[in-house]
Amino acid sequence: MHARAEAPAESSNSWPEDIFSILQRFDVRQVPYVPDAGHSELIQRVLASKTMRGISLTTEEEGVALLAGAWAGGQRGVLLMQSSGVGNCINMLSLTQIFRFPFLTLVTMRGEWGEFNPWQVPMGSTTQAVFELSGVKVLRASHPDEVREVMEAAAGQAYNACTPTAVLLSQRLIGAKVFTK
Amino acid sequence: MSKANRLDRRAVVSSLLKDRKGTIAVGGLGASTYDIAAAGDHPRNFYLWGAMGGAVMIGLGLALAQPKLPVVVITGDGEMLMGIGSLATVGLQKPANLSIIVLDNEAYGETGGQVSHTASVVDLVGVAKSCGIVNAQSLETMSEIEAFAPSLQDVSTGPRFASVKIDAANLERMLAGRDGIFMLNRLRGDLGFGPI
User: Fold this and answer.
1) How many Cα atoms are found within 13 Å in the side-chain-facing hemisphere of A119?
2) Whole-prediction pTM
Protein backbone atom coordinates (compact mmCIF):
# COMPACT_ATOMS: atom_id res chain seq x y z
CA MET A 1 0.00 0.00 0.00
CA HIS A 2 2.77 2.41 0.93
CA ALA A 3 4.59 1.63 -2.28
CA ARG A 4 1.89 3.51 -4.09
CA ALA A 5 3.40 6.83 -3.04
CA GLU A 6 6.34 6.22 -5.37
CA ALA A 7 4.41 4.29 -7.98
CA PRO A 8 5.09 5.47 -11.53
CA ALA A 9 2.48 6.05 -14.20
CA GLU A 10 2.38 2.39 -15.10
CA SER A 11 1.25 1.57 -11.57
CA SER A 12 -1.26 -1.23 -11.49
CA ASN A 13 -3.43 0.80 -9.11
CA SER A 14 -6.59 2.05 -10.69
CA TRP A 15 -7.18 5.78 -10.46
CA PRO A 16 -10.36 5.30 -8.38
CA GLU A 17 -8.17 3.44 -5.89
CA ASP A 18 -5.77 6.38 -5.85
CA ILE A 19 -8.70 8.70 -5.07
CA PHE A 20 -9.97 6.41 -2.33
CA SER A 21 -6.63 6.19 -0.57
CA ILE A 22 -6.23 9.98 -0.59
CA LEU A 23 -9.73 10.48 0.81
CA GLN A 24 -8.89 7.95 3.49
CA ARG A 25 -5.69 9.75 4.41
CA PHE A 26 -7.58 13.06 4.73
CA ASP A 27 -10.02 11.37 7.13
CA VAL A 28 -13.05 11.90 4.91
CA ARG A 29 -16.08 10.41 6.63
CA GLN A 30 -19.26 11.33 4.73
CA VAL A 31 -19.48 10.57 1.02
CA PRO A 32 -22.79 11.69 -0.50
CA TYR A 33 -23.25 10.64 -4.10
CA VAL A 34 -25.56 10.49 -7.06
CA PRO A 35 -24.37 7.41 -8.94
CA ASP A 36 -22.43 7.63 -12.16
CA ALA A 37 -20.74 4.87 -14.11
CA GLY A 38 -17.45 6.75 -13.86
CA HIS A 39 -17.69 6.74 -10.07
CA SER A 40 -18.90 3.16 -9.67
CA GLU A 41 -15.58 1.67 -8.51
CA LEU A 42 -15.02 4.48 -6.00
CA ILE A 43 -18.60 4.17 -4.70
CA GLN A 44 -18.06 0.43 -4.15
CA ARG A 45 -14.89 1.14 -2.19
CA VAL A 46 -16.67 3.74 -0.07
CA LEU A 47 -19.65 1.49 0.66
CA ALA A 48 -17.28 -1.29 1.74
CA SER A 49 -15.25 1.07 3.96
CA LYS A 50 -15.52 0.98 7.73
CA THR A 51 -14.60 4.63 8.19
CA MET A 52 -16.55 6.26 5.36
CA ARG A 53 -20.29 6.44 5.00
CA GLY A 54 -21.67 6.43 1.47
CA ILE A 55 -24.90 8.41 1.34
CA SER A 56 -27.11 7.97 -1.70
CA LEU A 57 -28.93 11.20 -2.65
CA THR A 58 -32.04 11.95 -4.65
CA THR A 59 -30.45 15.09 -6.13
CA GLU A 60 -26.96 16.52 -6.01
CA GLU A 61 -27.78 19.73 -4.12
CA GLU A 62 -28.63 17.60 -1.09
CA GLY A 63 -24.96 16.69 -0.93
CA VAL A 64 -23.78 20.30 -0.70
CA ALA A 65 -26.05 20.92 2.28
CA LEU A 66 -25.08 17.59 3.85
CA LEU A 67 -21.38 18.45 3.72
CA ALA A 68 -22.03 21.79 5.40
CA GLY A 69 -23.83 19.98 8.21
CA ALA A 70 -21.10 17.34 8.43
CA TRP A 71 -18.42 20.01 8.90
CA ALA A 72 -20.55 21.84 11.47
CA GLY A 73 -20.53 18.51 13.32
CA GLY A 74 -16.79 18.01 12.89
CA GLN A 75 -16.55 15.68 9.90
CA ARG A 76 -15.10 16.07 6.42
CA GLY A 77 -16.91 14.86 3.34
CA VAL A 78 -16.73 14.71 -0.42
CA LEU A 79 -19.57 14.89 -2.97
CA LEU A 80 -19.51 12.52 -5.95
CA MET A 81 -21.60 13.38 -8.99
CA GLN A 82 -21.54 13.70 -12.76
CA SER A 83 -21.45 16.95 -14.71
CA SER A 84 -25.20 17.02 -15.33
CA GLY A 85 -25.72 17.28 -11.57
CA VAL A 86 -23.65 20.42 -11.17
CA GLY A 87 -26.44 22.64 -12.41
CA ASN A 88 -28.74 21.18 -9.77
CA CYS A 89 -26.36 22.50 -7.10
CA ILE A 90 -26.09 26.16 -8.04
CA ASN A 91 -28.11 27.85 -5.29
CA MET A 92 -26.88 25.42 -2.64
CA LEU A 93 -23.27 26.22 -3.60
CA SER A 94 -23.84 29.57 -1.89
CA LEU A 95 -23.17 27.64 1.33
CA THR A 96 -19.51 27.36 0.35
CA GLN A 97 -19.24 31.17 0.53
CA ILE A 98 -21.53 31.63 3.51
CA PHE A 99 -19.80 29.05 5.70
CA ARG A 100 -16.30 28.86 4.17
CA PHE A 101 -16.26 25.15 4.88
CA PRO A 102 -14.02 22.52 3.28
CA PHE A 103 -16.07 21.68 0.20
CA LEU A 104 -14.68 19.09 -2.22
CA THR A 105 -16.56 17.50 -5.08
CA LEU A 106 -15.41 14.98 -7.68
CA VAL A 107 -17.26 15.29 -10.95
CA THR A 108 -17.18 12.75 -13.73
CA MET A 109 -17.56 14.57 -17.02
CA ARG A 110 -20.07 13.85 -19.74
CA GLY A 111 -20.82 15.82 -22.87
CA GLU A 112 -17.23 15.97 -24.15
CA TRP A 113 -14.55 13.77 -25.79
CA GLY A 114 -16.59 11.66 -28.17
CA GLU A 115 -19.94 11.99 -26.39
CA PHE A 116 -22.71 9.97 -28.07
CA ASN A 117 -25.64 11.57 -26.26
CA PRO A 118 -26.27 15.19 -27.28
CA TRP A 119 -28.42 15.78 -24.21
CA GLN A 120 -25.26 15.64 -22.08
CA VAL A 121 -23.46 18.33 -24.04
CA PRO A 122 -25.09 21.58 -22.81
CA MET A 123 -24.46 20.97 -19.09
CA GLY A 124 -21.12 19.31 -19.74
CA SER A 125 -20.05 22.40 -21.67
CA THR A 126 -20.92 24.80 -18.85
CA THR A 127 -19.83 22.71 -15.85
CA GLN A 128 -16.49 24.44 -15.31
CA ALA A 129 -17.95 27.93 -15.78
CA VAL A 130 -20.82 27.21 -13.40
CA PHE A 131 -18.36 26.23 -10.69
CA GLU A 132 -16.15 29.24 -11.30
CA LEU A 133 -19.09 31.65 -11.27
CA SER A 134 -20.12 30.05 -7.98
CA GLY A 135 -16.72 30.62 -6.40
CA VAL A 136 -15.51 27.02 -6.61
CA LYS A 137 -11.94 26.39 -7.84
CA VAL A 138 -11.69 23.85 -10.64
CA LEU A 139 -8.95 21.28 -11.23
CA ARG A 140 -9.07 18.68 -13.98
CA ALA A 141 -7.59 15.24 -14.56
CA SER A 142 -7.60 13.79 -18.06
CA HIS A 143 -5.12 10.92 -17.74
CA PRO A 144 -4.87 8.11 -15.19
CA ASP A 145 -1.32 9.02 -14.22
CA GLU A 146 -2.25 12.55 -13.14
CA VAL A 147 -5.27 11.69 -11.01
CA ARG A 148 -3.29 11.18 -7.83
CA GLU A 149 -1.41 14.45 -8.14
CA VAL A 150 -4.57 16.43 -8.94
CA MET A 151 -6.43 14.80 -6.06
CA GLU A 152 -3.60 15.58 -3.63
CA ALA A 153 -3.75 19.23 -4.62
CA ALA A 154 -7.55 19.37 -4.48
CA ALA A 155 -7.85 17.65 -1.11
CA GLY A 156 -5.04 19.76 0.27
CA GLN A 157 -6.56 23.11 -0.67
CA ALA A 158 -10.11 22.07 0.23
CA TYR A 159 -9.38 20.49 3.62
CA ASN A 160 -6.35 22.51 4.72
CA ALA A 161 -7.43 25.92 3.42
CA CYS A 162 -11.23 25.66 3.17
CA THR A 163 -11.01 26.52 -0.51
CA PRO A 164 -14.09 25.11 -2.22
CA THR A 165 -12.78 22.85 -4.96
CA ALA A 166 -14.13 20.69 -7.76
CA VAL A 167 -12.12 18.03 -9.56
CA LEU A 168 -13.37 17.34 -13.06
CA LEU A 169 -12.58 13.77 -14.08
CA SER A 170 -12.57 14.12 -17.82
CA GLN A 171 -14.48 11.82 -20.12
CA ARG A 172 -11.15 11.11 -21.76
CA LEU A 173 -10.11 9.57 -18.45
CA ILE A 174 -13.26 7.60 -17.69
CA GLY A 175 -13.96 6.65 -21.32
CA ALA A 176 -16.90 7.75 -23.41
CA LYS A 177 -20.02 5.77 -22.62
CA VAL A 178 -20.80 3.23 -25.31
CA PHE A 179 -24.46 2.94 -26.29
CA THR A 180 -25.39 -0.36 -27.90
CA LYS A 181 -28.75 -1.88 -28.69
CA MET B 1 -55.96 33.99 6.35
CA SER B 2 -55.93 32.33 9.75
CA LYS B 3 -57.83 29.10 10.25
CA ALA B 4 -59.46 28.16 13.54
CA ASN B 5 -57.67 26.04 16.15
CA ARG B 6 -54.24 26.43 14.68
CA LEU B 7 -51.30 26.61 17.04
CA ASP B 8 -49.09 29.61 17.65
CA ARG B 9 -45.72 28.89 16.05
CA ARG B 10 -43.68 30.72 18.67
CA ALA B 11 -45.38 28.80 21.48
CA VAL B 12 -44.75 25.52 19.66
CA VAL B 13 -41.03 26.14 19.11
CA SER B 14 -40.55 27.56 22.58
CA SER B 15 -42.12 24.44 24.06
CA LEU B 16 -40.02 22.10 21.89
CA LEU B 17 -36.74 23.79 22.88
CA LYS B 18 -37.54 24.55 26.51
CA ASP B 19 -35.50 21.66 27.94
CA ARG B 20 -33.18 21.27 24.99
CA LYS B 21 -30.03 20.21 26.89
CA GLY B 22 -27.37 19.51 24.25
CA THR B 23 -29.74 19.65 21.29
CA ILE B 24 -28.57 21.21 18.05
CA ALA B 25 -31.45 23.13 16.43
CA VAL B 26 -31.38 23.87 12.70
CA GLY B 27 -33.86 26.50 11.51
CA GLY B 28 -35.07 26.48 7.92
CA LEU B 29 -35.08 29.64 5.81
CA GLY B 30 -37.91 31.97 6.76
CA ALA B 31 -40.05 32.29 9.83
CA SER B 32 -38.80 29.02 11.39
CA THR B 33 -35.39 30.61 11.89
CA TYR B 34 -37.07 33.57 13.61
CA ASP B 35 -39.05 31.19 15.83
CA ILE B 36 -35.86 29.48 17.01
CA ALA B 37 -34.22 32.84 17.67
CA ALA B 38 -37.32 33.96 19.57
CA ALA B 39 -37.02 30.92 21.81
CA GLY B 40 -33.58 32.23 22.81
CA ASP B 41 -30.23 32.49 21.07
CA HIS B 42 -27.94 29.53 21.72
CA PRO B 43 -24.53 28.42 20.44
CA ARG B 44 -26.20 25.27 19.14
CA ASN B 45 -28.76 27.19 17.08
CA PHE B 46 -28.08 27.01 13.36
CA TYR B 47 -30.06 29.67 11.53
CA LEU B 48 -30.53 29.45 7.76
CA TRP B 49 -31.26 32.59 5.76
CA GLY B 50 -31.03 30.92 2.38
CA ALA B 51 -30.22 27.54 0.80
CA MET B 52 -33.94 26.84 0.59
CA GLY B 53 -34.59 23.12 0.66
CA GLY B 54 -31.35 22.36 2.50
CA ALA B 55 -32.39 22.38 6.15
CA VAL B 56 -33.05 18.65 6.50
CA MET B 57 -29.79 17.75 4.75
CA ILE B 58 -27.76 20.06 6.97
CA GLY B 59 -29.46 18.35 9.90
CA LEU B 60 -28.60 14.94 8.46
CA GLY B 61 -24.92 15.83 8.05
CA LEU B 62 -24.85 17.04 11.65
CA ALA B 63 -26.73 14.01 12.95
CA LEU B 64 -24.38 11.54 11.25
CA ALA B 65 -21.33 13.42 12.51
CA GLN B 66 -22.65 13.63 16.10
CA PRO B 67 -24.69 10.46 16.64
CA LYS B 68 -24.91 10.93 20.41
CA LEU B 69 -26.40 14.41 20.22
CA PRO B 70 -30.03 15.16 19.43
CA VAL B 71 -30.40 17.16 16.22
CA VAL B 72 -33.72 18.81 15.45
CA VAL B 73 -34.57 20.52 12.19
CA ILE B 74 -37.42 23.01 12.48
CA THR B 75 -38.61 24.28 9.13
CA GLY B 76 -41.67 25.41 7.20
CA ASP B 77 -43.84 23.65 4.67
CA GLY B 78 -42.45 25.61 1.71
CA GLU B 79 -38.84 24.90 2.65
CA MET B 80 -39.68 21.23 3.25
CA LEU B 81 -41.42 20.91 -0.11
CA MET B 82 -38.37 22.30 -1.91
CA GLY B 83 -36.18 19.63 -0.34
CA ILE B 84 -38.81 16.89 -0.28
CA GLY B 85 -36.37 14.31 -1.67
CA SER B 86 -34.23 14.73 1.42
CA LEU B 87 -36.91 12.85 3.37
CA ALA B 88 -36.13 9.84 1.19
CA THR B 89 -32.42 10.27 1.88
CA VAL B 90 -33.11 10.45 5.63
CA GLY B 91 -35.38 7.41 5.36
CA LEU B 92 -32.50 5.48 3.80
CA GLN B 93 -29.87 6.57 6.36
CA LYS B 94 -32.14 6.27 9.40
CA PRO B 95 -30.19 8.57 11.76
CA ALA B 96 -31.60 7.67 15.18
CA ASN B 97 -30.78 11.10 16.62
CA LEU B 98 -32.51 13.27 14.00
CA SER B 99 -35.93 14.86 14.36
CA ILE B 100 -37.69 16.92 11.71
CA ILE B 101 -40.47 19.31 12.69
CA VAL B 102 -42.45 21.09 9.99
CA LEU B 103 -44.37 24.19 11.01
CA ASP B 104 -47.08 24.05 8.39
CA ASN B 105 -49.03 27.25 7.75
CA GLU B 106 -49.94 26.02 4.25
CA ALA B 107 -48.46 29.18 2.79
CA TYR B 108 -45.33 31.04 1.73
CA GLY B 109 -45.56 33.56 4.53
CA GLU B 110 -42.37 35.46 3.71
CA THR B 111 -43.43 36.29 0.19
CA GLY B 112 -47.04 37.36 0.50
CA GLY B 113 -48.87 34.32 1.80
CA GLN B 114 -49.27 32.43 -1.45
CA VAL B 115 -50.78 29.00 -0.74
CA SER B 116 -48.47 25.99 -0.70
CA HIS B 117 -49.16 22.42 -1.81
CA THR B 118 -49.93 21.38 1.76
CA ALA B 119 -53.08 23.51 1.75
CA SER B 120 -54.75 21.06 -0.60
CA VAL B 121 -52.98 17.97 -1.84
CA VAL B 122 -49.77 17.16 0.03
CA ASP B 123 -49.84 15.23 3.31
CA LEU B 124 -46.31 15.65 4.66
CA VAL B 125 -46.74 12.97 7.32
CA GLY B 126 -47.75 10.54 4.60
CA VAL B 127 -44.76 11.57 2.51
CA ALA B 128 -42.39 11.05 5.45
CA LYS B 129 -43.86 7.62 6.16
CA SER B 130 -43.67 6.54 2.55
CA CYS B 131 -40.01 7.65 2.54
CA GLY B 132 -39.26 5.19 5.31
CA ILE B 133 -39.55 7.50 8.32
CA VAL B 134 -41.82 5.22 10.32
CA ASN B 135 -41.98 7.50 13.34
CA ALA B 136 -44.06 10.24 11.70
CA GLN B 137 -47.08 12.00 13.09
CA SER B 138 -49.04 15.21 13.15
CA LEU B 139 -49.29 17.19 16.39
CA GLU B 140 -52.44 19.21 16.86
CA THR B 141 -52.59 20.61 20.39
CA MET B 142 -50.15 22.23 22.78
CA SER B 143 -50.52 19.34 25.16
CA GLU B 144 -49.46 16.98 22.35
CA ILE B 145 -46.47 19.24 21.69
CA GLU B 146 -45.51 19.19 25.36
CA ALA B 147 -45.83 15.41 25.51
CA PHE B 148 -43.75 15.05 22.34
CA ALA B 149 -40.92 17.45 23.28
CA PRO B 150 -38.94 15.06 25.54
CA SER B 151 -38.73 12.52 22.70
CA LEU B 152 -36.38 14.92 20.88
CA GLN B 153 -33.76 13.94 23.47
CA ASP B 154 -34.01 10.26 22.58
CA VAL B 155 -31.13 9.54 20.23
CA SER B 156 -32.01 5.88 19.74
CA THR B 157 -35.51 5.91 18.23
CA GLY B 158 -35.29 8.33 15.34
CA PRO B 159 -35.52 9.49 12.74
CA ARG B 160 -38.79 11.09 13.71
CA PHE B 161 -40.97 13.49 11.79
CA ALA B 162 -43.77 15.71 13.04
CA SER B 163 -46.00 18.12 11.22
CA VAL B 164 -47.66 20.90 13.20
CA LYS B 165 -50.43 22.91 11.59
CA ILE B 166 -49.83 26.45 12.75
CA ASP B 167 -51.62 29.74 12.48
CA ALA B 168 -50.69 31.56 9.28
CA ALA B 169 -50.39 34.95 10.93
CA ASN B 170 -47.09 36.66 10.16
CA LEU B 171 -45.51 37.47 13.50
CA GLU B 172 -42.94 40.15 14.15
CA ARG B 173 -39.62 39.09 12.68
CA MET B 174 -37.11 38.06 15.30
CA LEU B 175 -33.93 38.64 13.35
CA ALA B 176 -31.48 35.86 14.07
CA GLY B 177 -27.79 36.34 13.44
CA ARG B 178 -27.02 35.98 9.74
CA ASP B 179 -23.23 35.71 9.70
CA GLY B 180 -22.83 32.13 8.59
CA ILE B 181 -19.11 31.80 9.35
CA PHE B 182 -19.61 33.14 12.87
CA MET B 183 -22.54 30.82 13.51
CA LEU B 184 -20.79 27.76 12.08
CA ASN B 185 -17.67 28.32 14.14
CA ARG B 186 -19.69 29.12 17.24
CA LEU B 187 -21.38 25.74 16.92
CA ARG B 188 -18.13 23.93 16.14
CA GLY B 189 -16.48 25.60 19.09
CA ASP B 190 -19.30 24.53 21.37
CA LEU B 191 -18.82 20.95 20.13
CA GLY B 192 -15.10 21.15 20.90
CA PHE B 193 -13.67 21.80 17.43
CA GLY B 194 -11.11 24.53 16.87
CA PRO B 195 -10.48 26.65 13.78
CA ILE B 196 -8.52 25.15 10.91
Assistant:
1) 0
2) 0.95
